Structures are given as C-alpha cells and as structure tokens.
Amino acid sequence: MIENARVKRIFERSKDFINNNEKVKALLRKAKDKLQVLQEDTEERNVFISNIRLVMRMIQSHFNGTYQSFSNKSLLMLIFSLVYFITPIDLIPDFIPALGFTDDISVLYFVLQSLASDIENYKRWEKAH
After folding, report:
1. Closest C-alpha to 89, from 4, 33, 6
2. Is the pLDDT of residue 4 over 80?
C-alpha cells in the first residue's frame, strides 16, 4: 500500500513536467548529476546507464523541438522513468548496496518495453540526423 502511494506521488509529480520546459531542464540536470556518481562496474548497470541516457536524449529532443513524434502518454512515461530515477526515496532507496537501483531498473525496463516502437522510431531518426 505504501509503495503504491509513493509511485502514485511520483507519477503525479511527473505530470507537472509535460508543459514546463524549465522543470524538464532541471530534471535533465539532476539525472545527469546522478548518472555521474554511478559506477559502470557491471553489465547490468552499464545497460541501465545507457538506457537512462537514451531516455534523457528522447526527452531533450522533444523539448528542444527537434523530435515531436511522441504522444503525450509516451512522453509522460519517459518523464516518469526519469523522475523515478532521480527520486532518492522510492520503493527501494538507492543507497542500499546491491539492491538500491533494482526498482529503478524495473521501472525503466517497463517503460522501455511499453514504448518499444516509439524508441525504435526515435533511434532511426537519431541515426539519420
């Protein structure tokens, strides 16, 4: 029950970013800062970091106007995954060794799987540009 309430609060917070470029810029800065302290020491963590960077590029491309093909639902899911990532107290707090990013990885995996066709379209666009 508590976990569902936390996730719901994070999701509600994510909605505030959809039409607010300044909040998105701050979100991207916080995500970049958090990524800088993560060590690329395992294959799983390397994939996670790579995928977070992809989500960041997708959001940035949308908000800087270079890629406008995401639906609001897709954009909200991308933002949610990043807000969840930067939130220090989520289902499993990030400071817990070995387990701290498990929930972040799970949320990101769910979002990436849900948006697989959007992601492939974006990657094709990104490669062409």
Report:
1. 6
2. no
